[in-house]
Amino acid sequence: MNYLEFEKPLSEIEGKAEELRALARGNKEMDVEKEAAALDKKAETLLKDLYKDLTPWRKCQVARHPDRPHCKDYIEGLFTDYTPLAGDRNFADDHAIMGGLARFNDNPVVVIGQEKGHDTKTRIERNFGMARPEGYRKAIRLMDLAHRFRLPVITLVDTPGAYPGKGAEERGQAEAIARATQKCLELAVPMVTVVIGEGGSGGAVALATANRIAMLEHSVYSVISPEGCASILWKDAEKMREAAEALRLTAQDLHKLGVIDRIIKEPLGGAQRGRRETVEAVGKAIEMMLKELTGRKPDWLIKDRRNKFLDMGSKGLAA
Amino acid sequence: MNWISNYVRPKINSLFSRREVPENLWTKCPECGTMLFHRELAENLNVCSTCDHHMGISPRDRFAAMFDGGIFTEVEVPQPLADPLVFRDQKKYPERMKAARNATGEKEAMLVVEGEMARTPVVAAAQDFSFMAGSMGMYVGNAIIAAAERAVQRKCPLVLFAAAGGARMQEGILSLMQMPRTTVAVQMLREAGLPYICVLTHPTTGGVTASYAMLGDVQIAEPNALICFAGPRVIEQTIREKLPEGFQRAEYLLDHGMLDRVTHRKNMREELVTILRMLMNQPPAIKGDLPAPEIKPVIDLPPPATPEAVIPEKAAE
User: Fold this and answer.
1) At CA B247, angle to CA B264 and CA B224, rounded to 5?
2) In this complex, which of B187, B227, B256 lies closest to A185 when CB atoms are compared?
3) Do the beta carbons of residue B240 and residue A165 sit within 8 Å?
4) Looking at the predicted structure, is the pLDDT value of residue A206 above 70?
5) Is the same domain home to A42 and A116?
6) What angle do helix axes A133-148 and A173-186 make, rounded to 10 degrees?
7) Ranges for the CoA carboxyltransferase C-terminal domain (chain A) (predicted)?
C-alpha cells in the first residue's frame, strides 16, 4: 500500500498493527490480537475522518494515486472480447491511449481511454498517460469506426494532460485535440465518459465531449493543474493548495456547475483501497448512462451533446 | 545641499514638465529597436517599417483597416455570468476584469462585427491580446457562437483573428468547456456550407489553438506568430533541452504542414477577399480601398450603431 502524504498518521497506526501481528507470528505464546484489533479500529476511524472532507488538493493527490485502478483495469474488469486496435495510420501507435472493440454487457461497443501504467516500465511505455497527436488521431479513427458501425463509444479519462514535447508540437498536438473534440461532437451514436482519475485540460476534453459524463468521487477535472495555475497566478508553484481550492476542480463542484451528470461513490479511503468495488461501481454507472441513450435517433444524440455544452455556464457557485 | 539644487532646479523642472512630450508618440520596435512614430506605425497597421515585425493590433484598428470605408457594426454577444467560481488568487477575478476594462476600454477579450470587405459581406471576430492575454472564458465562447450564428443567419463567411494565452484560469472548468462549445460553433458553419477562415496572430496558444483556432477551412498566420499548444518554456522544462530557432513560429508550422499560408498583415485583407469570394462562388472583387457601402445590405440588421464608432462603455461597473 502506498500512503499519501496526508495519510502519514494512518500509515503509522497500520504499520504498528502489522508489526504486532508479525511479532505474534514469530512467537506463538504472545497474544496481540486484542491490541492489534484496537489499532485497526483506530485506523478505521482515522481513515473515515481523513476522507470525510477531503480538501481539493488532497483530492488531486488521491486522483493521482499510483494504486488507483487505471484504464486497463476497467477494460479487463468490465468488458469481454476486448480487441485492441492500434495506430493512427499516419505516424505511430501511441500507448498513452488504448482502445478498441469490446463487448459491454454482451453488446458491442468501442472503448477508448488514457492509461498511465502501474510500474516504472509500463509508465514509461504509456508516457504517464500523456498522449501525443498520434494518440488523439487513433481515438478519432476509433470513434469514426464506432460511428460507421453504429456502436456506442465509452471513454475513460485519466491524464495529467496532453504531452508537451517537441515532436508532439511539430506533429500538431493542438490540431489533433481540436479534431478529436470535433469528432466527439459529430458522433451519431451514444457516447459516455467516466473521469476515473485526472481530467487534465484539453487532453481530457478531446475524449470527454460526451452525451453523459460521470466522475469518480475523488477524481478531478480542470483547465490547468493546480501546480501550473499556482506558478502562473501566484508566481509560486508551491501555492498549489490555494490554486486547487480556487479552481473548483472536484467532482462535487463540477456537478454543481452542471458540467458533469453524476458522481460515482468510491469505497472508504478512495478507489485504491477497494479496486474491485470501484471497477464495479464504474460499470454500473456506464450501464445507467448508456440506458438513458439507447434507442435514441442519431440526430437526437448529436443535438443532445451539442446542447449539453452550449448550455454550460448558466449555473455558478456560491462563495 | 548648495543653492543650485535648492533654488534653480525647481524652476528648470517646472519648465520641462510644462512642455513634456506625450509619452506614446514613439514606439520602439521590440525586434530591431527602431523608434517608430505613432502615426506612421498606425498607418502601417502596427508593423515595423524596418524589420516587418508584426506588433499587436487592437480588434478595432484591425477592423477599421479591413472593412470598406472603415465601417463595421458590432454584433451583440450574450453576457455570461460574471464570476461563476468566485475565483480569487492574489486578486479577485472581478478586480482583474475591472483593471483590464479600464486599461483597454473594451468590455471583454473578443470583438465581433459585421460589414463588407471589398463588397463581400463578412462576419469577423478578433481576440484582443491586451485584454487579460486574450484568454478564452465564457464571454469569448459566447462571442464565437454569436459570430457563427450571425454568419449562418446572413449566409456569409466568418473570419476569425485568434490571439490568446489560452483558457481563462479564473473561470476554471467553465473556460475549458469553451473548447467543445466553440467547436459546436464551427460545426454550425460547416453545416450551413459557409467558409470559416482562421487567422492566427501572435501569440495563439493552449486551449484556443486546440479548438476553434485550428479548425478553419483555411488556416492563415501572420509572420513569426507563436502558435502552439504547450508553450516553449513548458516544453524546455519537460524535455530539458533547448528548442531550435524559430520553433513554433508561423513559418515553422507552415513547413510542418500545420498551416495553409503565412501572410503579411498589409496583404491580409486582399488575400481574405480573394479566398472568400472563390469559396462563396462570387466573381472577383474590385481591388483597392472602397468607400463605405451606400445601402445596408440586409434589412433585418439591428439599428446601425454609429459607424466604426460604437464606443465601448468604459468598465461596465
Assistant:
1) 15
2) B187
3) no
4) yes
5) no
6) 20
7) 38-292
Residues A9 and A120 in one domain: no
For residue A70, the domain's CATH number is 3.90.226.10
Q: How does pLDDT run across B245-294, given as a tens digit for each residue?
A: 899 999 999 999 999 999 999 999 999 999 999 999 999 987 777 777 76
Query: What are the Cα distances from residue B142, in Å, to A294, B76, B107, B309?
Result: 31, 10, 13, 22
Model pLDDT for residues A38-76, shown as the tens digit of each residue: 888 999 999 999 999 899 999 999 999 999 999 999 999
- The CA distance from B276 to B66, in Å, is 14
Is A312 part of the contact surface with chain B (CB cutoff 8 Å)?
A: yes
Tell me: pLDDT of B310 over 50: no
The residue count for chain A: 319
A149 with A261, same domain: the answer is yes
A90 and A45 share one domain: no
Q: Rounded CA gap, A248 and A255, in Å?
A: 11
The pLDDT tens digits for A83-134 are 999 999 999 999 999 999 999 999 999 999 999 999 999 999 999 999 999 9
ipTM: 0.93
Give the nearest partner residue to B239 out of A166, A171, A205, using CB atoms. A166
Name the residue among A281, A286, A289, A295 with its Cα closest to residue A308: A289
Instruction: Give the distance from residue A312's alpha carbon to the nearest chain B alpha carbon, in angstroms.
Output: 7
CB contact under 8 A, B256 and A170: yes
- B120-127/B158-164 β-pairing: parallel
Closest CA to A131 of A85, A166, A164: A164
The phi, psi pair for A127, rounded to 5°, reads 55, 40
Please state, in angstroms and rounded to a whole number, the distance separating the CA atoms of residues A227 and A236: 8
d(CA A195, CA A213): 8
Q: Is B270 exposed, middle or buried (0-12, 13-18, 19+ CB in 10 A)?
A: middle
Q: Which of A188, A183, A207, A187 is nearest to A197 (CA)?
A: A207
pLDDT tens sequence across A144-183: 999 999 999 999 999 999 999 999 999 999 999 999 999 9
Distance CA A182, CA A207 (A): 10
Question: In chain B, which residues have their Cβ closer than 8 Å to the Cβ of A318?
Answer: 86
The torsion region of residue B241 among left (phi > 0), alpha (psi -120 to 50) and beta comes to beta
Please choose, from the candidates B263, B172, B225, B61, the residue with its C-alpha nearest in 3D space to the C-alpha of residue A246: B172
- Structurally, chain A folds into a number of domains equal to 2
What structural domains does chain B harbor? 1-55 (no CATH), 56-283 (3.90.226.10)
Give the cell for residue A256: 454543481
- Which residue type occupies A227? E
**DSSP label at B57?**
-
Residues 6+ apart with CB under 8 A from A152: A104, A107, A109, A110, A146, A189, A190, A191, A192, A290, A293, A294
Distance from CA of B50 to the nearest CA of A (A): 30
| Backbone angles phi and psi of B111, in degrees to 5 | -120, 130
- DSSP code, position B69: G
Euclidean distance between CA atoms B224 and B247, whole angstroms? 10
Distance (Å, whole) CA A171 – CA A94: 13
A187/A42 same-domain check: no
Considering the domain architecture, whether residues A227 and A195 belong to the same structural domain is answered as yes
The nearest CA of chain B is from the CA of A191 a distance in Å of 14
**Rounded CA gap, B88 and B95, in Å?**
10
